């Protein structure tokens, strides 16, 4: 890791952002917290899942970074505890959660995203990449969209006018199809978990079991295919969807 981590020029500086770091490796926790504090984050460090859930109501973080292999309850249990909450919970159940783990096999990623995590970063991590992902999640939570127009290759989304074009030709989408496309286009190469998509597009809690997302994703895929975008809105079975087709 670099001695001088990059600064977060893109984040607003009206207050320091709060991070809940759940990491039982003291060296990793120390180095990462120092880097984040350099970039104007206030970091609450917890070394177990139980401690993390106790810290939630007093730290009220803007984003949580959670390791999977924790003593006591697992990182997945922490994610589910955040999402489930309870009637008197002070924290936001939609809190962005990034899993940071040395367990980077497909099964672990599927379990993390399927359990409600918003992103997954493998150890050893590159700090600049992790910082960019934190930045993106914080901006999503604080509701600060970028420009009204989003372009992904030949696809252009105008959020203000709620129009979509491919190579200049209009594509007619229903309201939820448009919303789903807009969310996927924020990070078109990353698989977004079903719980996150259900929360952001439909406002459903993470534990909801429904075919609504799959139905709308299928319709959106068909319409984009008809417009010439073959393989877009690809599905990683059991995890979620991404906008761009799988490579290879």
Please outline the helices and strands.
Elements: E1 17-22, H1 26-38, E2 41-46, H2 49-59, E3 63-66, H3 75-84, E4 97-101, H4 106-114, E5 119-122, H5 127-141, E6 149-152, E7 155-158, E8 163-166, E9 169-170, H6 175-185, E10 192-193, H7 194-202, H8 212-226, E11 234-236, E12 240-242
Parallel strand pairs: 1-2, 1-3, 3-4, 4-5
Antiparallel strand pairs: 6-7, 7-8, 8-9, 10-12, 11-12
Q: How would you portray this structure in words?
A:
This protein has 248 residues and is of the alpha/beta class. Helices cover 38% and strands 19% of the residues. The chain has 8 helices and 12 strands. The protein has helices spanning 26-38, 49-59, 75-84, 106-114, 127-141, 175-185, 194-202, 212-226, and strands at residues 17-22, 41-46, 63-66, 97-101, 119-122, 149-152, 155-158, 163-166, 169-170, 192-193, 234-236, 240-242. Strands 2-1-3-4-5 form a 5-stranded parallel β-sheet, with helices on both faces. The protein has a 4-stranded antiparallel β-sheet with strand order 6-7-8-9, with helices on one face. It has a 3-stranded antiparallel β-sheet with strand order 10-12-11. Strand 11 and strand 12 form a beta hairpin. The longest helix is centred in the middle third of the chain and has 15 residues, at 127-141. It is elongated and about 55 Å long. The two termini are 32 Å apart. The model is unreliable at 1-14 (pLDDT under 50).
């Amino acid at each position: 890791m670099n001695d001088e981590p990059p600064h977060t020029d893109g984040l607003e500086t009206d207050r320091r952002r709060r991070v809940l770091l759940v990491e039982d490796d003291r060296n990793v926790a120390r180095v990462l917290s120092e880097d984040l504090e350099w970039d104007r984050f206030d970091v609450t460090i917890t070394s177990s899942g139980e401690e993390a859930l106790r810290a939630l109501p007093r730290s009220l973080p803007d984003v949580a970074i959670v390791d999977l292999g924790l003593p006591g309850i697992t990182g997945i249990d922490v994610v589910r505890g955040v999402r489930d909450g309870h009637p008197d919970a002070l924290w936001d159940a939609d809190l962005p959660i990034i899993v940071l783990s040395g367990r980077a096999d497909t099964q672990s990623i599927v379990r993390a995203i399927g359990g409600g995590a918003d992103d997954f970063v493998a150890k050893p991590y590159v700090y600049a990449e992790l910082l960019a992902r934190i930045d993106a999640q914080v901006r999503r939570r604080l509701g600060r969209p970028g420009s009204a127009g989003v372009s992904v290759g030949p696809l252009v989304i105008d959020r203000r006018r709620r129009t979509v074009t491919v190579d200049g030709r209009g594509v007619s989408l229903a309201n939820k199809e448009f919303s789903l496309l807009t969310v996927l286009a924020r990070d078109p190469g990353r698989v977004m978990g079903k719980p996150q998509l259900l929360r952001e597009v439909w406002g459903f809690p993470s534990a909801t079991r429904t075919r609504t997302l799959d139905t709308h994703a299928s319709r959106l895929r068909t319409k984009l295919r008809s417009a010439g975008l073959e393989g877009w809105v690809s599905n990683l079975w059991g995890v979620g969807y991404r906008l761009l087709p799988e490579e290879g």
